[in-house]
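Task 17 of the worksheet. Students: predict the tertiary structure of the chain below and write it out as structure tokens. Keep your answer in the requested format; marks are given for formatting as well as content.
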Amino acid sequence: MTNNTVTTSTQLKRLAFHSTATCSAEAAAYGRCIASTYMDVRKDSCKEEFEKFGRCLRQAVGRKNT
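Model answer:
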């Protein structure tokens, strides 16, 4: 494996850990929204929940909210 591959793998592992440990409430809210609208999917139907989940992930891995 190249150094870039190792770095990417490490970043993905860190993201996966934080998404389940740190952002579980946000992930659950997004999941509930998706589950409740899956029969009538529309653009941005779960946008607010998705943005909160993404914001949490970015904070958890140390990125700025952009």
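Marker's comment: The chain has three helices and no strands. The mean pLDDT is 81.
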